[in-house]
User: Fold these one by one.
Assistant:
Number 1:
Amino acid sequence: MTVSVTPSVEWVSQCYNHGETHEHVSLYLVRDGDDVILVDSGSFYHREAITSAVDDATDGCGPDAIILSHSDYPHAGNVSPLGGDTEDVELVASSGSPEQQGLPDARKCKIGGRLDVTGRTFSFIDPPLADRSHTTWIFDHGDGVLFTADGFGNYHEPGQCRNRSSEFDGMISTEQIYEYHRDNLVWLRYVAPEKVERTLDRIFAEFDVNAIAPVHGNPIDGDDIDVYRDRLYDAMRRIADEYEVD
Amino acid sequence: MNREIVPGINWIYEAGPDRTAKFELAERQPDWYEPGREAYIPQCAYLVEGDDETLLFDTLSPASTDQILETVDDLVGDRGLDYLVVSHPDVPHAGNTHAILEEYPDATLVAPAYGNDHELYHLDDARKVADGDSIDLGGRVVEFHEATFLDAPVSIWMTERETETLFPVDWMGFPHLDEEALLFVDELDGEFDVSRLVEFHGRVLFWYQYVDVAKTTAEIDTLVETFDPEIIAPAHGLVIRENAPEYMELMKDVTRAIDEQGRIGTLG
């Protein structure tokens, strides 16, 4: 069962359990008329649940296209089970070396460009927050959803697994945002956070974002984006400040 | 394709695609590029052989499954493979893990202890190594180190003690021209141009555009002092076997150059 993010974007929520905290390893489903586009494909770890959820959501027809943010296993682990290796499903990815990334049959999207997939328009954005060099963020021009792959994530507690940001008491906490980015975007220890912030400012000025859809976090509703960004900045500052070179 | 660096350490090379058009090299004419030539950012794995045991560091990409299996077989022969170390579970580095372990089912899979989602990469049953851990291959000891400049959180660097070789994985990669494949840096024509390092780090380590330059420079000083290597064997560049610490010092210039120029471009 999916969770509605915007009128035509749904969240296929899956969690990985780190003990008392959970981390999402999700994907999203975009409905465009009769067509269904998946953004990322999730991890092999959740294969049965994901294929079942997509099957239910598409009345057994499966997706018409899969767009990958990158080839990292928790994002690209179910391409074949979801039909991404067949002629019936269009596979779109950003890599400049698809064979080296294990995606030799993918249609290439250019980071910095835009592409129509089954008639719906997506822009591909060079991401300031990522954990692999060939990652792209994906912006859906239909509903204004920004799919941020490994950026804008958060850990969450059991019981918050299917929450959108507005369903948290006080929104997603700074601590949840901090812990996720500390553990997963380790390189943030070296950055000057204001430089990342400037890039984020440019992206949010260029694209009219109604919701943020991270793979490793709860979807962020439009009204919560500014609060999340403030907390993200505090988290980045803390990560950088806590790391001292010997 | 492979080449012996020193007896017992072999460099296994995969070229990947020609980057000339994607990087717009003919139009941009960066200092390191010669018009009319092809340019590659290689993918490298390394085989370390001790008196008793053998170890492979990384696997090449899924585009080179046959190559890595044939090359490792040629090199280890009847000795077989005892350890497969995955520096980080990125497809071009780890994409042949399953195929290699099928060929060498008795090999021990070794993975970084860092990060918290090994299960999502089929690394939950691997032997986990962290900073200071080592494996004695008999006459050769490899030691593991927390990866400093990285992308994925599940990452590890390695050194080999006897030859003082540093394997810094994604750090210190750089492009090379067509006929330079498997050359050592000291065999290149002319002086090594730092713009090669800028080209790579300004694309692949995308976060270099955001770094605190002073902090990163201080970290490079620490790395030079800690490792002071004789040889540097990167995953995405040519092997450096002369004046290696000087090339590490060059990385300070790279940091400053990217801070001034910004992102060079994407890899994807």
Number 2:
Amino acid sequence: MDIEKHVLLQLCRLIGGNSDFEPDLYANVKIDEEKLYQTCLYHQVLPFFYYFRDIFRKSFPSLSQDFFSKAKNYSIFNTTRLMVYENFLIEFDQQVSNAGIDYRLLKGIALAFEIYEEPYLRTFGDLDILILPDSLEIVNELLLQNGYFICEDLYSAFPTEIIKKYSFARHYIRKKPSILAVDVHLNLSGKLHPFQFDLMEFWNNSRDVEINESKFRTFNKEYTTVYLLYHAFKHYYFKLIWIIDVYEILSDDMDFDKLGKLIIKYNLVKMWNVFLNISRDLFGRIPGNADILDEKKYHSLKRHRIINKDSMLRGVLPYSPSIGRIILPLIYLPSFLQKVRYLLRQLFPPKDAIRDFYVNKSIMPDWSDYLKLRTKAILELIHHVK
Amino acid sequence: MEFYKHSGNVELKQFDDENLLINIETGFYFRLNEVGNFIWPLLDGKQSNEEIIEKIVEEFDVQIEKANSDLFYLAQ
């Protein structure tokens, strides 16, 4: 393992509450600070280096003052960003309330203010909000009135009825007076995703989260944990911050019996056990009263071949996201039937969810073009696997 | 007489040992130095710019022109 990964591992151990390092171990070690800086940006953990700066200065004396200054500047940037988002959220909350619309805050900003020692520690890019599908048109209108526009991405080509039908997220961006991004989710996972959730169960198990003096709705902690666990998996655990989120929320007050039942209900047992494995290796401990579930199927906290401490610190899995999207659910879906159904849906998605039909006017949404596009996609997949 | 006062979009935020002035609409921020920390509480809309300049001159032993430019810079 290279030295930059050791530094990241040390960071995880600190988050896990372990500061017993051998002070001379890294005394004469040269660190590639640019590489470390880029890695920290990628994993969204740079502000932790400011927070733990005294310990890092002792443990890695070769780290320069410039590196810590950059970490501080980034922490200040996060602080200002949080204030801008908070300001927007207060106005937006008032507008949607007046329109009689309810919503839930997901991930970033809610976690920043609730489970981290300092809000600036939780770097995030977008404001994630969950709405009920019936509210999409009104929320869309409000965001457009606030200077947002729909971001050009994978889903921007889909008409509203398809967005609603398959629960795709919509990404909005505002450029003035500051760059802000809002992701509007219609469910916890898209309809084509391998893992599905009962939206109303999550919706009805919500509570207030306080952001300074304002209150916003988010899920109860057990439900948030289930969502975070799924979200980390959905993105192939590519960023450390997603693992840290789960670790931190589990270290808070948590009803582990209730959480365990939810994990089993939503088919996330394998992911949970993999998380505990990673947690033990990264943070040096398993948080709270968390315990392995369903030991018959997953005998021990054995290190996973693909998703483990080293792949976490490296930040990438040994295959592309498009391949990962097919392979990982095939590994983690619990039953053979679910695996087969998922594979078929990936290879042959519904005709009306094929993006090419909306962005390319020369491709008509008929069966002939559908089969051509599918053949092309499968050949690309086979080429990647080879 | 002219009076500078705090804008509703600008908030003072303490970050460890530093005070930051943050525009909560644009995200632009400004790190206050010793002079800035002295001036900021005086921008309450009750004290005229001349009175504030007088206080800066007295506190930091600087020329009126320098105090005036510091006040103008912060107010911008």
